[in-house]
Write a structure and sequence with these properties.
The complex is a heterodimer of chains A (about 120) and B (about 190). Chain A has about 120 residues and is mainly alpha-helical. Helix content of chain A is about 65%, strand content about 0%. Classes of the chains: A mainly alpha (about 120), B alpha/beta (about 190). At the A-B interface, helix 1 and helix 6 of A face strand 3 and helix 1 of B.
């Protein structure tokens, strides 16, 4: 079993506030509770507008509300940054490239910190 | 770049009853992820197992906690379900069993002896559950169904408590426990 964060904590926040799925759906401007349920069961990822609305409803930051999703995105970006870094190291050694490399190093997650 | 504690364990505690089961999922002694009491009519064991498996699949817990079926005074159907749950095999999922005696012993240390006192202690420790706290049960009243959520939470908190004690003991002896040490010791009550 994985010990990483859950993709989102919508259900936790909803239950904490005593709201029903219908209530959340209404606040989001929908008719039924189906979409809320899909988010809670990690079947769908909300759009940016919905994520912002959820963050406002639950008075919680997006990265707190979607911590698992955030981890996954960071991981993926970090891996791509590593590839870009390797490509740059092979290609050029100009000052601009060195600046880029410095930046890329700052967003690469060290292997020990990876899941 | 700093990373959150990726080794924190997710704990699923289940308390079967005659009308379904109560469950609580905690990521730490103060962080409940989900809780509830699915109703399963006619005490259908298969249906209950399907619901438990669905919870495991959705939340991917590291530990599943149930009451020790051996020596339990629960009814036959509940004991059967406990036995069946303890046979669930999922990769990376540990199953821990605690007797009612053990749970009561842990909470006694914090001044809670009766079921209601334990539920109140849990509501104090985990404020998210406070609105689910059942009313005080008078002798002529039957047990509120919501009590099963608190019984499950009591099992989960007993696990966190015993884990922190184990971690403290192994720190003292200089041994590193096989499981990662809890980041903060659980404070059950003030």
């Amino acid at each position: 079993m994985a010990s990483h964060k859950l993709p989102n904590y919508i259900r936790h926040h909803r239950k904490r506030l005593g709201l029903s799925q219908e209530d959340v759906a209404f606040l989001l401007g929908w008719n039924g509770s189906a979409q809320t349920s899909r988010y809670e069961h990690f079947c769908r990822i909300p759009t940016l507008r919905t994520a912002l609305a959820l963050s406002y409803i639950f008075q919680s930051s997006i990265h707190e509300l979607f911590s698992g999703e955030k981890e996954e995105v960071e991981e993926a970006v970090s891996k791509r940054a590593q590839i870009l870094e390797e490509q740059l190291q092979r290609k050029s050694s100009s000052r601009a490239a060195a600046r880029k490399l410095d930046f890329l190093k700052s967003i690469i997650i060290p292997k020990a910190g990876r899941l | 770049m700093t990373r959150p504690n990726s080794h924190s364990s997710r704990v699923l505690a289940i308390d079967p009853t005659t009308h379904g089961f109560g469950f609580t999922i905690l990521e730490s002694p103060t962080m409940p992820v989900d809780w509830g009491m699915p109703v399963i009519r006619k005490g259908d064991k298969e249906k209950a197992l399907v619901r438990v498996t669905a919870l495991i699949k959705q939340y991917e817990p590291n530990v599943l906690i149930i009451e020790e079926p051996k020596g339990s005074r629960r009814c036959g159907r509940v004991r059967e379900l406990l036995e069946a749950i303890s046979l669930i095999k999922v990769k990376g999922l540990k199953i821990r069993r605690f007797s009612t005696k053990r749970v009561k012993k842990v909470f006694r240390a914090f001044g809670a002896q009766t079921k209601y006192e334990i539920a109140r202690a849990i509501a104090h420790q985990v404020p998210e559950l406070a609105s689910w706290l059942p009313r005080f049960r008078k002798p002529w009243m039957s047990e509120d169904k919501r009590t099963s959520i608190f019984d499950a939470a009591a099992l989960a908190l007993t696990y966190f408590h015993s884990r922190s004690i184990r971690a403290r003991n192994s720190e003292r002896t200089g041994l590193i426990p096989d499981s990662i040490v809890v980041s903060a010791p659980p404070v059950l009550l003030n």
